[in-house]
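Re: your question from the hallway

Yes, I did run it. Sequences:
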Amino acid sequence: MKRYLLLEDGNVFEGEAFGASIDVSGELIFTTSPTGYLEVLTDPSYGGQIVLFAFPSVLTYNLRRSIPQSRDISTSGVIVRETSGLNTEAFRELDMLLNNSGVPGIKGVDTRKIIELIRKKGNMRGIISCTRNPEIDFGTMNTRDLLRRFATTFDYHLNNDRNDEILFVDMGTKKSLLDQVSRICSLHVVPFDFPFSTINGGYSGIFLSNGPGDPSDESLDGVRELIRKNYGKLPIFGVCLGHQVLSMALGASTGKMLYGHHGTNHSVIQGEKCFITSHNHNFHVLEESLFGTPLEVIQRDANDGAVEMVADSEKFAMSVQYHPEGSPGPVDPCNFFGEMKKAFGGVYAKNAWNK
Amino acid sequence: MPRMPGINRVLIIGSGPVIIGQSAEFDYAGSQAARSLREEGIYTILLNSNPATIQTDNEIADRIYIEPMTLEVVKEIIENERVDSLLCSMGGQTALNLLMEIEKSGIISKYNLNVLGTEPENIKIAEDRKEFHEKMISIGENIPRSSIIHSSRWMEEVETIQFYPFIARTSFSLGGKAGRIITGRDEAVPFFSEVFTGKDVSEVEIESSLLGLKELEYEVLRDKAGNAICICNMENLDPMGIHTGESIVVTPSLTLSDREYYGMREHALKIADSLNIIGACNVQFALDSENETFYVVEVNPRTSRSSALASKASGYPIARIATKLCIGYLLGELNNPITGNSSAAFEPSLDYVTVKIPKWPFEKFPGDINLGVSMKSTGEVMGIGRTFEEAMFKAVASLEEGQQFGMSFDSNSGDLLEYLKRPTHLRLRAIFQALKDGYNMETIATLTGWDREILDRLHSIITILNNSEFSVDNLRKLKELGIPDYFIAQEHSLTELDLYEKRRKLDLVPSFRVIDTSSNEFASQSGYFYSTYFENYDASPLSPGKSILIIGSGPNRISQGLEYDFGSVKTLLHLKHANIPTIMINSNPETVSTDFDVSGRLYFEPLKLEYIANIIKFERPVGIIIQFSGQTGQNMASDLARLFGKDIILGTSHENIDNIEDRIKFSSDLDRMGLPQTEFIYSDTLENLPEKIEQLGYPVILRSSFIIGGSSVKILKGKSELEHIMAHYKEIGIKGKILANRYLENYDELDVDFISNGKDMRIAGISIHIEEAGIHSGDALSITGPDLIRKDILNRIEQILHKLTSYYELKGFSNLQLAVKDDIIMIIELNARLSRSFSFICKSTGINWIKYGIDAIIWGVLPDFQWNPKTYSAKIPVFPFRIFSGENMRIGPEMRSTGEMMVSGKTQEEMWSKIARHYGMDTYRHAVIYSDKNVSIRIKQLTAGINGIEVFNPDEIEEMIERIEFLNTTTFVDLGGEINLEVENIKKILLRRGCPVILNERLFMRLISSQQVTSKARELTSYHN
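Structure:
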């Protein structure tokens, strides 16, 4: 069966259908990760996006060997280059899963050409449809809806040491990130729209998760308020969306990149050191906007110089744009979780309180 | 951090002659290293004994030493050249072993040398299996169980082994040479008994075999600040138990989960860190997918065969960047030369798949086709496609196995199930056949150890292939999967050419895509292309009507290797200087010609009509050069001329190529020209053969081709030998004509290389075989130099060359083989293409004959000089008999050597002294000679009064063995007529001990009669002045 990808710029690509037979729209993103297709497809940060895999033969192992990052497929559509005649066990499994999740896919299209279009024109919205003339439109991104869909809807505790907990703000966290942080400390996991004013201390730190959508959206104002109220009192750490919200709360601003970073091979540079890191971001913190904030740039992307890690000199706040938890991708020793452990453990607190 | 100070004059050590396990990939690595250093203004001095290499050329390095690769020579060079640093990580195991010797000798501290890259201390740890295991345990890595068996106590120790099957190997193994899998006690006892017979092996390391687990490799780059990246990983489709050089390998891995892929990557970086690797290294793992456990198998602390593959597969120039890291740069300071605008500190992302398949010389060494932990392949091919399917079919096509396609298994070869289980070069065929025959997938997976997902993919292909209807729709599907034309054509009784034209009409044509290391995430200027179907183009043609396209020589095999790539690369460099846009096509990932910036544009594609025609159609070059592609290009010439007009072929025309290739036409042409040749007969059937040979008279040289893509050349002395060989031919089947030439006894054979412009010619060089005519020119020890040929003979040779040149309008490179005795000259063979001896001639004369040959092809001009040597050089062949233990160690008309080395001398005596040293026949010689009784009497007389020479005949084998055991190391000379299995065995044991073996009487006599003088290592150009 044929299926079509329509782009905002008028380009139409024809391929073979798999997954659910429905029409969807979403922002079109490409990732260069050679592995971890299920990790990508379940990552809430890709929520509402149509994800294209640059690596062409990606569906070559069984789903059970993956680490799902949420309970369901989070992307609205999937595009792969695989040949149209592909019929393997791994492929059939994914096909069934997408069917059950109501997510359509296309195989056998010229993915490299689509990447070139995105590289030259910037991110576009697209429609996956069973016809060349779909009835739906390209739609727009609604951050609040995405956050509601992927963040927890209720608060809960992890690890049960209520006396030494940190506040984990879930804005649509990846499971691997939650796991990684919970390995280091006890968590009180709360949604992004939690009534933060009811909180009366009692935490040894705040952690801001990754998530989908635009960091400047007003639905995240509550989180920013929380950060401002606690900055200087508690160590605050963040990843991806968390990094952007933290920077904004402390006075910086964010912008949308031409086509973002999505892949597992990006190098970030810190002085003499470089680390290969897993990236998935369309927005970034604008370096010039950090002037006058307590935050400094610690790491930059080796290629485009994008801000990848910021921290203040007192080590109250530190955040990374990339995913130090990997899944998919590497976990090079970039020192983020190590610093977090020290900070939440009160190592840096003494200096701060003396001040 | 910029470059370290004190690195101004670097000695780069190459890998020496091509042998199994060490081939063109180190020429590529060394060439990249030299270029990388010269970019920094560093003076480069290069040592390599192999004259066929591209690196031993002054366009690549500043000073060239083609000398024996010994400690003494290194010492001389260090003094002559005031070397301050050594780079030994680009020359394979040969260079690392030499580094170990250099280190031991104390030269490093004496001359205060920098050893660039990983410290010798750490190399030792990586190379010594015991130390390596200890290191790995100390950093918490999983390693297989192991133990050491000592020669003194092996009989007790063998009883205590508790982990069968195990791999037995000695340290510092080259291409896993001494490795073997032992499955039980009944195999262990005879094995150790054999190994410990020689006195030089004191212990053998045994290691629990990880047989059947998935084998993975990670290619790591690390700088001195400890930053490390993984360029790519490689998945061996064949499970553990088969040397990675013998496996079909996919890059990047296809069947690994994210956790496995990045888990092993993390450990690879950690291991590189623990050995303080600076530059490149390769880490091998065995993965148990069932429970996600992996074991460290080994680390290569240098660039390896896999690095070359990884470089070509990913587009990342590993050796070039590794060299920069060795002189102090950090990863973050360097640019990715492929994109030009992104950092070298990143891991390439691929939007295509590559498949490597080894090329085995089993047509020459059919004795034992089993694959295992030792390497037997001489080369490899790589296919690139947008999908696994396409890449795999391109790799299969690149093997150039005639019209025989790698998808069907001939039931005459044996039982299919057996061939699924037993790893041989026929396994892929067996898998396809089993899928076609509907075997249970589980059975195939269990027998082969291949991953289910890969088999699933192959099965999808079979499903589509089974629909054999010849429709446009179906053809589309087949081309989407990458099925080659010649296979589809065969299925539908068409020729490849027919199908090509049909596809053109239907507009089912491929487009060309770029390899850019970033999956198109960044714009790139890359000129590295491959074809795929039903996609868009990444670029427009390079320069239609102006560009020149060069066809490479494909996988390295015996008789077609590195020396052809030398021609391609020198041509590319020459045309670059002349501002002519160049396009290169090749399928061999080890080569320098497939380096991304040697040509204007590189197409990594099979050297088959379909793929080459697709490229010509797209690029529309002004002409193509096929003279550097060995037989591959010659066979395609007339089809290409038919498609694109006869002018497309630059150089000798396709009609004349065919006339020369067809031995019968050639012979009648020679008659017409009045040129002397040996008498010959031919026969279309086996039945007529005996009678015709009888008319000709024995001995004869017999040539024939097999149905299974091989060919055979044999010398027959009498009727019984003919009967024997006819029985063999009936069994395997032969095709086409059988040709028999009168064998010329005790003639000298001459190899004449010349260039011509269709009318006139110039001799580039003449090499004279030391052995009598009849030994293949690739296997003979040949020498060149002044006054080796009588003036009147030389004049007559020139007359012959002039006749041939004008008769065939020869243009470009040609090679003529002659047999000469007293006043008789006979023509043996003419080849209208570059010959194997050409690089040797270029190096020995110091003249860039490639440039002049190209000028003759393109502009019709010839230089105003010809061969006028001032110095003496010898080409010494190197044989793979250590590997093919099932083969008799003899030389004859069929080429069996894998490579060569060159030595030179200002005088003939100096050259012979160097040759004698190579054969252990210099001043401190000891030689044991075995020969037939009558010969032995003669030899005894001839060698009377020479110390250290002992002659034995077939009745004295026992005494001979005793004597050899007493001497332990000696030169062995086999002049025996009949094959004696005991003697064959002795030769192999001696080879493994590193003892020279001489197989020819004329060579031996020349060696003992040569006068020994002191010899010097000289820079190449100083031989030419």
